[in-house]
Amino acid sequence: MSLLLGLLVAAIVLFVAFGPILRRGAPKIVLDGSAFRDKSGRLDFRNPHLVDLEALERLYADPELQASNHWDTATVDSMLNTLHNKRSFEAWARTALVGVRRKDDAVVGIATLGVENTRDRKGLSIGLQMLPEHRGEGLATELLAAMITSTRAMTDGPIWIGTSITNHAITHMMSSLGYVPEPSASPYRAPNGTLVESYWYRVGVDAPPPVFNNG
Ligand SMILES: CC(C)(COP(=O)(O)OP(=O)(O)OC[C@H]1O[C@@H](n2cnc3c(N)ncnc32)[C@H](O)[C@@H]1OP(=O)(O)O)[C@@H](O)C(=O)NCCC(=O)NCCS
User: Fold this and answer.
1) Span from the CA of 208 to the centroid of ligand 1 (angstroms)
2) Which of 70, 129, 134, 171 to mutate to test the pocket of ligand 1 (most atoms within 8 A of CB)?
3) Where are the domains of the chain?
4) What pTM was computed for the model?
5) From CA 158, how far away is CA 7, in angstroms rounded?
6) Torsion over CA of 200, 205, 206 and 210, rounded to 10 degrees?
7) Strand, coil or helix: what is 97?
8) Which residues pair with 130 in a beta bridge?
9) Which residues have any ligand 1 atom within 6 Å of their CB?
10) Closest CA to ligand 1's atom 13
11) 20 to 30 A from 189, CA-CA: which of 22, 51, 162, 195?
């Protein structure tokens, strides 16, 4: 009896001590695109479905996307493995939003959540990727505004957006949404090992809301 009790206490102690470590790595919040409704915009927002697989595979195979995110082959393979395993796809899909063009239901891009756990940055981070044929139409700005608003609706913790300082599309977009980078960002180590000079923007409830302007 006392052995059983001892085992039970040990299990509780282990769970309390290591639970947070085991759980780290996957955001625990569930996004819902309906948190953002803007009928004057061109997009609707929802979690990715399995029917989006072809578009997502094409997106992650894009060499320009891989280069701008400094992804290596292992990162691309791991992304594709996530997409191809039904359980991991479903878990990942709860923390991502696709932008769907209202006029023809085309998936134009995706915004995803990751976990930031470095010395100077804790919390969630947002990634944004548009399908090549839908870039340069201002749709990324709509998707990003929706993602910021939807994530803020689910957490009052810190939310970040990081980008290489040479990614002019994102830096321009962030300033038109009313954000300025944090003054002291250390370089970011990309999945391919490169140290990237980066800007980090604070976009959680501790920052101003996005200024959404369809003009
Ligand atoms: C970066 C990315 C998301 C931008 O998407 P997009 O749909 O082309 O962006 P938008 O059309 O909404 O343009 C946003 C602004 O950036 C500007 N812009 C777009 N591409 C640009 C470029 N290559 N250089 C400079 N400015 C650019 C646009 O003119 C627009 O400014 P405006 O509103 O004043 O006209 C898209 O190119 C992409 O998915 N790239 C690959 C992945 C990536 O780099 N992700 C970012 C990692 S956080």
Assistant:
1) 21
2) 129
3) 24-202
4) 0.86
5) 38
6) 60
7) strand
8) 109
9) 64-65, 68-69, 127-130, 135-141, 163, 167-170, 172-173, 176
10) 138
11) 22
Mutate to test the pocket of ligand 1, among 98, 128, 161, 199 (most ligand atoms within 8 A of CB): 128
Task: Enter the tokens of residue 213.
Answer: 């302007």
What tens digit of pLDDT does each residue of 31-88 get? 998 888 888 899 999 999 999 999 999 999 999 999 988 999 999 999 999 999 999 9
SS (H, E, C) 120-188: CCEEEEEEEEECHHHCCCCHHHHHHHHHHHHHHHHCCCCEEEEEECCCHHHHHHHHHCCCCCCCCCCCE
Tell me what pLDDT residue 214 has.
53
Q: How confident is the model at residue 110 (pLDDT cuts 50, 70, 90)?
A: very high
CATH number (3.40.1190.10, 3.40.630.30, 2.40.50.180, 3.30.710.10) of 24-202 reads 3.40.630.30
Three-state secondary structure string covering 71-91: CCHHHHHHHHHHHHCHHHHHH
Q: What are phi and psi of 202, to 5 degrees?
A: -90, 120
